[in-house]
Amino acid sequence: MTVRTPIILGALLAGLLVVTGPAPAIAAPTDAAFNSSTGTLNVDYASYLAKHDIVYNRANTNPLHGLTVGNGRTGAMVWQQNGLTMQTSGVDLSQQSTYAAGLVNLSTTPQLDAGVSSYQQRLSLHDGTLTTRYDNNRTVTVMGSPNSEVMGIHVEDSRPGVSAVALNLSLWDPNSVQNIADVPNLQTWRTVGTFADSTGVGLSRGQADPNNFGYTLAATVEGAAYSAQTVNETQVRLNITPSSSYTIWFTAASRINSPGLNSVQQAKNQLAAVKATGYATTLTNYRNWWHAFWQRSFVQYANGADDYLENVYYLATYMIAAGGFGNYPLHFINGVFRATQDNSKWSNGYWYWNQRDVYNSFLASNHADLMAGFNRLYSRNLAATKAYTMTRYGIDGLWVPETMGWDGNARGTVNSDYVNDLYSTGTEAAYNMYLQYRYTSDTGYLQNTAYPFMKEAVKFYQGRLSRDANGRYFMATSNAHETYWDVKNAITDLAAVRLLFPLTIQVSQQLGLDAGLRAGWQTVVDNLAPYAIANGAYLPHDPPTSPTRNNENVALELVWPYDRTGIGYPDYQTAVNTFNVRPHPYGNVWSNDHVHAARLGLGDQSYNGMRTMLQKYQNYPNGMTNNTNGVFEYLGIHLAAMNESLMQSYNDKIRVFPAVPGDANFVGKFTLLAKDGFLVSSEREAGEVKYVGIRSLHGKQARVVNPWGTQQIRVRRTSDNAILATSTGNEVTFATAANTTYVVERTAKPLTNYAATTLTGSPNQGQKSLAGTASTLGLGAGQPSGATALRAQANNLYVQAGNAGAAALIANGPAVGPWEQFDLIDLGNGNVALRARVNGMYVCAENAGANPLIANRTSVGAWETFARVNNSDGTVSLRATVNNMYVVAENGGAAPLIANRTAIGPWEKFTLTSS
């Protein structure tokens, strides 16, 4: 993590146009969707998820807005350029997924979009496919082969007169590759090998990487004849004989997963295998894989017809899962979806804070296999990190670097003051492994993987803590995460001890291991320094106050993910006070305030927090952000916030709808997984919780908080309707049998009072907007995409940076050219800057009009900062903050920038137009 960077509002105009999507399927208050046989909700997943499809009704030419499609290991961002172009990547190709695989381009003669009168591109979440339809005679479907690195492009093209089809694989300039991933041999990543033969074509990089990374991007064709061609050292081509139906298969085959590290042969083998299986069967298998994925859980979170937050939930789940099943985790920035060539940021490691945002929701959504991939990064590196702990600290225990490389190296940590003295990461990693056990009941995993990691993390703290003359343990100096450096008793360290030590003692007793260590661990717990409190709120460390280095709300780590306080805890009010006075509300793309609000039962705050995060960071119509501090964590933390708003079980109590908004129009329904393997289902409508359904997977004891306060409740086993318990208390506890369903219901209004229903939906057909924000999903017909141009109303004048500043404002331009295209950069203070897309040129009102447009500026200066004024007629004016100067195209371009105007004239009014 680092400090905030400017935000480019590429979809600003889109935010001014509201196209309402279909209303969610909402059952009547007299209906209930619970299925007593399955113990989950009755959902028609195909129709329900279709209302959350992302739809482009206009061809998108901006790579950053490309729709995302992936099979769990390989992904592609797709846009319209010289046919259909996609940047592909795979999660296991390079260290921390730094280097993307390359570009795949499908072009035809005439082009696919030639002469079209109708266009729609649809990301089907339920099927996991991306389908582009041109009129009624051209359809391109991008899909994948499950449990592999292979993707496919299926073409149905019945046009007469198609004379040529080409599939190009290409790379950007390999000589521009930088060592941002701490790779030991940069030259091998700048070296490209090619092949073109009867099997297809391919490009390879990293073939001599000492860490065994590297890959081959290769393609072949099923259903049409082709010839293979090497175009140049970074481009190969399949010349395909035109056919009405054919499939192009491509793979990003990773060396590290290839027999003998031979990614070239592996790529050829993968392509041969998928061709032998065939498109129809592979598509069916792929769809079935995604269908099974979705059926593991369900959420509905809607305020009346507004289901935007819910739509992001499903889109974010898809985007993370589409790259989350590799040998290595989905990197919080690199992932498998990007349109930035090989350019990336912070690729020398996995930042735990950011990665936890991506992954920590997936236990509750019943995808422990996704969390397992994240945990595996740390458990497989136990020996390496333990050895380094001894080298660095002389402690027989486990210190885990906050910024850790794929092999457990700490080079990204020890050279950074932000994370150099951060000690609590090992506890978080150990706790997530323990939680994997609690959700799956896998005792073998607990004994062989989780407990050894927990024990070593405890031993590190035991060796690192100091003890005063009174026998009290304290942390003399460490970082309170990245925000407060070298402080005493960082709250993260004290919370880590209070979380992990008792759990480790408990597990050692459960497993009958290390009895001789428990007393020493308990002594630390019994004599640990207290948390610092001031004005009724927790402090991030003991006084004195430390300079702020980052914008994390460190004191709230107690609430989540350390699970030390929340609803019903003795210190609840102190925790709420801490939330209310937190210093950095929603300070960056990785902020987790809305999760903290949910854990504290603050439903309106959590709801508004989810909206705030999307308003600030969901900048593109494909659901992605332009904030380079992270790409996927704001999506992942959205999932956690919604799950925690609907159901909580972190303190071994099942609590339904603990933090939903107070709006009477709110409708919530879910099937989520609680600790100890309880599939929990419930529905809330018109302010009323209807029931709590429990499907016990492992036969553990259940403890459910009464959602109706003191109304009498009963526990009914659905198989024989036996009443197992009744209560008017705050909670009820009951024994369960594995694979058995129970209902907690009001005695006065049992579940049988509700008519049975199935939750359905209607397919989305257009753009959705988050009301009151510029955030949108999808593109409406004719809606601008990509960069914006500014056109003055008088004589349709374009603002144009002609010739890098010469003749800067040109009147009556017939079309928008590259020098007229600008990104709007949000400076975070109500102002914007304008950056031309060519050569990164800034629009700069230098010296109040003299030499007004300056090229290739490296930072935003005073004369480049403009306030955006919304005029009543729908136009905008831009006023520089220096001397209140207006940007004015006076006299058709002569003396174009005039300072100190007192009113807005016609030459100062601009409309935002498509580029």
UniProtKB/TrEMBL annotation:
List GO molecular-function terms, semicolon-separated. alpha-L-fucosidase activity
Residue intervals of the Glycosyl hydrolase family 95 catalytic domain = 300-615
Keywords (alphabetical) are:
Signal
The record ties this protein, via SUPFAM superfamilies, to: Actin-crosslinking proteins, Six-hairpin glycosidases
Question: Which CDD domains does this UniProt record tie to the protein?
Answer: beta-trefoil_FSCN-like
Please state the span of the N-terminal signal peptide per the UniProt entry.
Answer: 1-27
Biological processes, Gene Ontology terms = carbohydrate metabolic process
Q: What is this protein called?
A: Glycosyl hydrolase family 95 catalytic domain-containing protein
Q: Does the keyword Phosphoprotein apply?
A: no
**Database matches in InterPro entries:** 6-hairpin_glycosidase_sf, 6hp_glycosidase-like_sf, Actin-crosslinking, GH95_cat, Glyco_hydro_b
Provide the species name. Virgisporangium aurantiacum
Q: What is the lineage of its organism?
A: Bacteria, Bacillati, Actinomycetota, Actinomycetes, Micromonosporales
For this protein, the record's Pfam families field holds: Glyco_hydro_95_cat
